[in-house]
Design brief:
By secondary structure, this protein is α+β, with helices and mostly antiparallel strands. It contains 3 helices and 2 strands.
Length: 61
């Protein structure tokens, strides 16, 4: 079984080193509240440029 709970900075940095963080494109798909939380985490806490974050809103459930 994998990780459980909210995705936070500690969880992300546990699996990605600084090179991976700096060189990745981030794809977020989910309900609007999750999208906002993940975008805030990536931009505000991990300092990922907005251009490297792709978002797809999923409201179909």
């Amino acid at each position: 079984m994998g990780e459980q709970g909210y995705i936070n900075q500690a969880m992300v940095t546990k699996y990605l080193n600084s090179n991976e963080l700096d060189d990745s494109i981030y794809y977020i798909c989910g309900p609007p509240v999750m999208l906002k939380a993940m975008q805030k985490l990536l931009q505000d806490d991990l300092h990922i440029p907005k251009q490297r974050i792709q978002i797809e809103e999923f409201t179909g459930y």
